[in-house]
Design a protein that fits this description.
Distance between the termini: 55 Å
Helix content: 25-40%
Structural class: alpha+beta
Number of strands: 12
Bound molecules: adenosine-5'-diphosphate
Oligomer: single chain
Radius of gyration: 19 Å
Strand content: 15-25%
Order of helices and strands: HEEEHEEEHHEEHEEEHEHHHH
Number of helices: 10
C-alpha cells in the first residue's frame, strides 16, 4: 500500500495538518474539515480518513485527482499515512454536496432554475475534462458534485470574512462553483477496448447506471453521460432520489428493458423547459451511440443559459 502511495500522490507530513470537525461519512471512512499548512500558507481543506487496509480506492482517487487541475474537478493536496490511517487532503467545498444542499434549501429558499442550469454546465465542463484525460468517472451523481460559495477563499484568514459576507446572497444571485468529486471508482479508459470493466463485487450505484453498464459491467464515456442525465434530473428536482418508488432490483429490471420509457419515471416538472428536459432524455437514450458528448452538452447548457438571460 505504501509503495502505491508513493507512486500515486504527494506525501504530506502528519504535523502539517489539523483535523477539525467531522462533516460527512463515506463508504470507506469519515470526511472532516481541517486546516493544512503548505507552502507557507494555511488553507481550509477536507480530509478523508480511512484505514490503511481498506485504502485501495482512496489511493487510486488521490493519484487520479492529484494529476488534474480544472476549476470543476476537486483538487487533491496530497496524502498522509500515520499509525495505520490514510488521510487524503482535498480542496474544501463549503456548501457540501449538491444533493444535500439543494434538498435542504428547497423548502425555504428554492434555488432559481438558471442557477441550477449553471451548476449543470460546470459539471459537464468537469466531466469533459476527465473525458479528455481518458478517465471514466463511473459514479457521477448529485451526491458527488460539491459546491463552493462563489469568491470563497480557502485561506484561513480570508475564509472567515468571506463566508459571512457571501454565503446567503451569493448563492441566490450567482451560481456556486460546482466540482466533480469522489473519484474513488474512477478508472483510466482502456485505449484498446474503449471500455473499462466495473467490478462485480463492488457496491454499484444502479440508479445512475446505464443499461449496458448494468448488463455487462462495461463503463465508458457514454455510461458517464447516462449518469450525468440522472444527475441533471436530481439537481433540477432539488435532490430527489431517482426512481424513488422502486427498489434497486426493480430498477435493474426496468433499465435493462429496451422498450423502457424513462420519462414515466424521471418525470418532467411543469416549470422545466422542454429544452432542458430534452437533455435528460437524450443522455438517457437506451443506445449509447444516441447519447450526446459532454462537448455537445456544454454547448446546449450555454445556449439555454444565454436564452434565460434574455427573458
Ligand atoms: P466516499 O467516497 O468515501 O463515499 P464522499 O467523497 O462521498 O465519500 O464524501 C462524503 C461526504 O463528505 C460528501 O457527501 C460531502 O458532503 C462531504 N465531502 C466530501 N468531500 C468534501 C470536500 N472536498 N469538501 C466538503 N465536503 C466534502
Amino acid at each position: 500500500v505504501l509503495r502505491e502511495m508513493q507512486k500515486s500522490a504527494k506525501p504530506i507530513d502528519r504535523d502539517s495538518f489539523t483535523i477539525l470537525e467531522c462533516i460527512g461519512s463515506g463508504q470507506f471512512g469519515t470526511v472532516n474539515k481541517g486546516v493544512v499548512f503548505l507552502e507557507n500558507q494555511s488553507s481550509i481543506c477536507a480530509i478523508k480518513v480511512t484505514k490503511m487496509d481498506s485504502g485501495d480506492d482512496i489511493l487510486k482517487e488521490a493519484g487520479i485527482m492529484q494529476s488534474f487541475t480544472h476549476a470543476n474537478v476537486v483538487r487533491a493536496f496530497g496524502l498522509c499515512s500515520d499509525s495505520g490511517d490514510i488521510f487524503l487532503l482535498l480542496e474544501f467545498c463549503d456548501l457540501g454536496d449538491a444533493q444535500h444542499h439543494l434538498a435542504s434549501l428547497s423548502q425555504s429558499d428554492p434555488v432559481p432554475m438558471r442557477i441550477k442550469i449553471m451548476i449543470l454546465e460546470q459539471v459537464a465542463c468537469g466531466m469533459k475534462y476527465l473525458d479528455d484525460m481518458k478517465i471514466v468517472h463511473r459514479d457521477i451523481a448529485a451526491r458527488n458534485v460539491l459546491l463552493q460559495t462563489p469568491n470563497s477563499h480557502n485561506s484561513v484568514v480570508r475564509y472567515k470574512v468571506c463566508i459571512a459576507y457571501f454565503l446567503h446572497n451569493a448563492f441566490l444571485c450567482r451560481p456556486p462553483r460546482a466540482k466533480v468529486s469522489d473519484l474513488g471508482l474512477a478508472r483510466e479508459l482502456d485505449e484498446h477496448s474503449q471500455y473499462t470493466k466495473t467490478s462485480q463485487s463492488a457496491q454499484l450505484p444502479v440508479r445512475w447506471m446505464a443499461p449496458e453498464n448494468i448488463m455487462d459491467f462495461k463503463a465508458n464515456q457514454a455510461t458517464d453521460v447516462w449518469a450525468f442525465g440522472i444527475t441533471a434530473w436530481e439537481i433540477l428536482s432539488n435532490g430527489m432520489m431517482p426512481f424513488e418508488s422502486l427498489k434497486n432490483k426493480e430498477v435493474i429490471v426496468l433499465l435493462t428493458n429496451p422498450n423502457l420509457n424513462i420519462s414515466t419515471y424521471l418525470m418532467k416538472q411543469d416549470h422545466w423547459s422542454d429544452d432542458i428536459y430534452r437533455i435528460i432524455l437524450d443522455c438517457t437514450a437506451f443506445e449509447p451511440d444516441d447519447r450526446p458528448s459532454f462537448d455537445m452538452l456544454i454547448n446546449d447548457f450555454t445556449r439555454i443559459v444565454r436564452n434565460l438571460g434574455r427573458l
